[in-house]
Amino acid sequence: MGAARTRTGxxxxxxxxxxxxxxxxxxLAGPFAGKFGDVQQNRSVDYLPDSADSTQVARVQDExxxxxxxxxxxxxxxxxxxxxxxxxxxxAQVAEIGAKYRLTGTPKAVPSRDGATxxxxxxxxxxxxxxxxxxxxVDGVRDIANGGAGLSAxxxxxxxxxxxxxxxFGSVDGTLLYATLGVVTALLILIYRSPFLWLVPLASxxxxxxxxxxxxYGLHEGFGVTITGQSGGVMTVLVxxxxxxxxxxxxxxxxxxxxxxxxxxxxxxxxxxxxxxxVLASSGTVAAGLLCLLAADLNSSRGMGPVGMVGVLxxxxxxxxxxxxxxxxxxxxxxxxMIPAFGSxxxxxxxxxxxxxxxxxxxxxxxxxxxxxxxxxxxxxxLNLPGTLKQEDSFTEKPESISATQTLARAYPGxxxxxxxxxxxxxxxxxxxAKARTTDGVAQAASGRSGSGWTEITVFATAAPESPGETxxxxxxxxxxxxxxGTYVGGPSAQQLDLADSQTRDREVVVPLVLAAVxxxxxxxxxxxxxxxxxxxxxxxxxxxxxxxxxLVFGPVLGFGGTDSGLGLLSxxxxxxxxxxxxxxxxxxxxxxxxxxxxxxxxxxxALRTTGGVIASAGVVLAAxxxxxxxxxxxxxxxxxxxxxxxxxxxxxxxRTYLVTTASVLLGRKVWWPGRLSREPExxxxxxxPEPV
Length: 693
Prior knowledge:
Blueprint: H1 2-33, H2 53-63, E1 70-77, H3 84-100, E2 110-111, E3 117-124, H4 131-144, E4 152-156, H5 157-192, H6 199-223, H7 229-258, H8 264-291, H9 299-330, H10 352-362, H11 364-379, H12 400-411, E5 420-425, H13 429-437, E6 442-451, E7 454-461, H14 468-485, E8 488-490, H15 492-526, H16 530-553, H17 567-595, H18 600-627, H19 635-667
Antiparallel strand pairs: 1-3, 1-4, 2-3, 5-7, 5-8, 6-7
Helix pairs in contact: 1-6, 1-9, 4-5, 5-7, 5-12, 5-18, 6-7, 6-9, 7-8, 7-9, 7-18, 8-9, 8-15, 8-17, 10-18, 10-19, 11-16, 11-19, 15-16, 15-17, 16-17, 16-19, 17-18, 17-19, 18-19
């Protein structure tokens, strides 16, 4: 009896020890989590690959006297033509800016041919590389430059665009976190229909988010991992979405075990033993898929890999330690008013997913064929995706810098308002300048700063920014200068070209790695080659269909002017890794039933009946969390959130419910080939009747 009391006391102490360790970890990690937003880098160059010409240009500019210049364009415009008072006012304001800030040169007015617009290029090296100083400089210039009475005054250029971009990303973290928490809270209340239970997984997910931010900050400080506003936002969504999914699966299994075990501690041990392998494999596939992004050339994609991975691992650890400890300490009463009593039998009710599974297995071949045709037809929408997204189309709400760019494009059709920067060895700078001036498509070129053996040359093209004509000019400059003179050609438009080229290369490298990594994990979990292949084919089909739906919505419905160049790769990584999660939940339960001796069709239907509700709830939660991205003012994040949310819903309600189930029924025991289950039933334990969800 004394030994029994000791064991019981030890069991009671375990949850308290786990809770104490988490509290200590939070105290230690809290200060680092608070610095997460401070290390985010959101300039265009922070997304570029290290090997790109435009990256080298940005690095050399940082080393030139004064550091990297902040280049602005002041645009004064009046419909019908500027008046003499307008020109005097503009000149006075530019002079005031020159008196307040140290500029690299005296700004000179460039009037438009129709006399309605006046442009002043303004550049300063005073802010240096400090983002806050740059933003303060841009805001100060905007405070001085003002129109009124029909005269518009706008501040654009690369510096203005970077400031607008940083402000958007600066507001993303808080907005995204609170919006996601609100969505998850509402869904958990609807799912559990309990005034208390929803708080437990939500609190655990919130703790996991804080730990993930601290860990990501550590990766940046210790290993130089790039953290952008995009990767930070996606990590937040991933922690809350994936963490809630794991919680739904664990709580569902825990509810079952409470009817079989008198003590909550024993019920939780059984629940962890039952669903732990599926949760571990699920998180493993997501982490492995994200780590494959380390092979990407693009700096932002490569940084998103480890940042997303620590988010998933934080969610996993919290849901397998903190959540169980809280549930055990709270006991059965946390499920009030539907408390699962020990020895009770759950109310038998008609399962929607059992009915769906039964209807699908009546004519499995027809259902599978129809589903494949539907996915293939939706995937054709990819052909309707708009072209590459331009910087001026990257905001859902047009900021001042974009408005200024559009005004310039209309006012100066024969000259770009966005500079192309050529960095040349100082010894050959004069020859490079002469060659640049004779290059097709160049309207103007002039030498700028020199230092550390390099000279900066600013080139303006005749074509509009990010137009096919400007692209040809950049390519001509690179072809005529790079090999002969050892120059680098960069600038905002060149950065967009390098981004697109790197995305193409990264898709060719990362996609096969993701498929291979996920396949290996699935083989280890399911002890089969056929089942993993079936799941991978299913999630790839979902990815294609989701992108196709995006093609039908982005341009015709939402009016987006382009598709973010990283959409294909990032949506693939997330949809494959996250989509396989639900396949793991379903197939792992199907394997359990097969090991218990159930026939293939019975095993498939039982697995669908018992996990269908959990998978549906998890899918809705995950889709809703990614859908929060569509509320942000950046087109790239809206497109990413839309495609992932649509893909998760397709995977949850069409592929998992109908296609995977019918394919498993058609394949029979062959789905487990070459494992022993493919040859004969293996009766390890008597089948049990789990609680329908």
